[in-house]
From TrEMBL:
Keywords for this protein: Acyltransferase, Transferase, Tricarboxylic acid cycle
Entry GO terms, CC: cytoplasm
GO biological process entries: tricarboxylic acid cycle
Active site (catalytic residues): H270, D327
Protein name as it appears in the record: Citrate synthase
Any Pfam family hit: Citrate_synt
A single GO molecular function term of this UniProt record: citrate synthase activity
Family: Belongs to the citrate synthase family.
This protein's pathway: Carbohydrate metabolism; tricarboxylic acid cycle; isocitrate from oxaloacetate: step 1/2
InterPro entries xrefs: Citrate_synth-like_lrg_a-sub (IPR016142), Citrate_synth-like_sm_a-sub (IPR016143), Citrate_synthase (IPR002020), Citrate_synthase_AS (IPR019810), Citrate_synthase_bac-typ (IPR024176), Citrate_synthase_sf (IPR036969), Citrate_synthase_typ-I (IPR010953)
Recorded coiled-coil stretches: none
Reaction(s) the record says it catalyses: oxaloacetate + acetyl-CoA + H2O = citrate + CoA + H(+)
PANTHER family, per the entry: CITRATE SYNTHASE
């Protein structure tokens, strides 16, 4: 059917699958993993314990958590030839394509964990949960040109990632517990979020029986877009642009409102949360604490707080139900931790990994629960005959 009829297309009003992992009530600002409120998990859990919950459906017993931790921490080291892979990427490579390529390459070193038998899926789950932090840290090290470090089995999951990212071979790494805990909480907050763009990508790719590594690698690319996971990087670049251009917050908001060049208020708005993103409220508290611990107020945080205050009292944003989302404050914390903006979306991917794996496992476990093949509304030419070259 052609013509200028406008159609409401896309997945927005479609339930592409059934899932028991994450529940979101966008109007009430509710987010629960397997029934547990995100606020309680952020306060009381750890990322590895929350990953267990997201993956297996229940909070682990002491023994279960110890066994899971052992399986993950013992497998963080990667094959030496896979470590060599990072050397082929230019120093200035963005770490997201490097991470996606490294996850794809990891599947070639883990061929015995590619398959759909329960034990094989469990082995691949442990491989990815264990090695993606190492690959992420090495993606970062590639950009700094400093030597990569082996994981240290005496450290926790988060401490290993931090030390492999920032540590050097010459001296022991000095941890800052505020930073370590803040990163743990940030990863908890990113662990899953039902059928967002990257998770739907993981399910769609996996629905063809592509393996878990290929599906997660595709999810990394989907996440890299600035309208999705790349927003945390775009927020920092927006705050720096406001600071460096010397414009007022109101000038910037006016530019967004007049839509002249499609400028968006990055870190604001959400497909589902039309009230507020419960994760943003938790992250904002940590941003305050971290930046104060790092030495008083931070100019970019001040701009962010001013932007939020101005937007929340501006009809343009209130009418469109635009509130801070998970990405609005995370970049400020990541920057305070010492990560460059290019690494922010890699940190999002590290947090979202258990969710991607859990959703892929849930789909594979129930052949009737597949995204399937979407249809389309055809708006192209009606049938017409081939035109010989001399008549075109
Ligand atoms: C994540 O899905 C998930 O769960 C994702 C995520 C997860 O955990 O996986 O939560 C993570 O991706 C969070 C979102 C990060 N992205 C950004 O912060 C980029 C900026 N946000 C926008 O791109 C936008 O808000 C979206 C894409 C996030 C959501 O878009 P919506 O809700 O579908 O809104 P829309 O595109 O239909 O726009 C509705 C109106 C439009 O104005 P009008 O045409 O009605 O006049 O709101 C405007 C839009 O122009 N609008 C914005 C805006 N977002 C929407 N205007 C200015 N700034 C914005 N950020």
């Amino acid at each position: 059917k052609t013509g200028d009829t406008t159609f409401d297309i896309g997945f927005a009003n479609t339930a592409v699958c059934k899932s028991a992992i994450t529940y979101i009530d966008g109007d009430a600002g509710v987010l629960q993993y397997r029934g547990y409120p995100i606020e309680q998990l952020a306060e009381k859990s750890t990322f590895l314990e929350t990953s267990y919950l997201v993956l297996y459906g229940e909070l682990p017993t002491t023994e279960q958590l110890a066994d899971f931790t052992e399986k993950i921490s013992r497998h963080m080291v990667i094959d030496e030839r896979l470590r060599e892979l990072f050397r082929i990427f230019p120093r200035k490579s963005h770490p997201m394509p490097v991470l996606s390529a490294a996850i794809t390459a990891l599947s070639t070193f883990s061929r015995d964990t590619i398959g759909f038998e329960p034990d094989t899926i469990e082995a691949a789950t442990h491989q990815l949960m264990a090695k993606v932090p190492t690959l992420a840290a090495y993606s970062f090290k590639n950009s700094t040109g400093t030597p990569t470090l082996f994981p240290d089995y005496s450290l926790s999951y988060i401490e290993n990632f931090i030390r492999m990212s920032f540590g050097t071979v010459t001296e022991p790494y000095q941890f800052d517990d505020t930073i370590t805990r803040a990163l743990d909480v940030l990863l908890i907050l990113h662990a899953d979020h039902e059928q967002n763009c990257s998770t739907s990508t993981v399910r769609l790719v996996g629905s063809s029986q592509a393996n878990l590594y290929a599906s997660v690698s595709a999810g990394v690319h989907a996440l890299s877009g600035p309208l999705h996971g790349g927003a945390n990087q775009a927020v920092l670049e927006m705050l720096k642009q406001i600071r460096d251009d010397g414009v007022t917050v109101q000038d910037y908001l006016d530019k967004v409102k007049n839509k002249s060049d499609h400028t968006k208020l990055m870190g604001f708005g959400h497909r589902i949360y039309k009230n507020y993103d419960p994760r943003a409220a938790i992250i904002k508290k940590h941003a305050d604490a971290i930046l104060k611990a790092r030495g008083g107020s931070d100019q970019l945080l001040d701009i962010a707080l001013e932007l939020e205050e101005a937007a929340l009292s501006d009809d343009y944003f209130v009418e469109r139900k635009l509130y801070p989302n998970v990405d609005f404050y995370t970049g400020l914390i990541y920057q305070a931790m010492g990560f460059p903006v290019d690494m922010f979306t890699v940190l999002f991917a590290l947090g979202r990994l258990p969710g991607w794996i859990a959703q892929w496992r849930e789909m594979v476990a129930d052949p009737t629960n597949k995204i399937g093949r979407p249809r389309q509304i055809y708006v192209g030419h009606t049938k017409r005959d081939y035109v010989p070259m001399n008549e075109r």
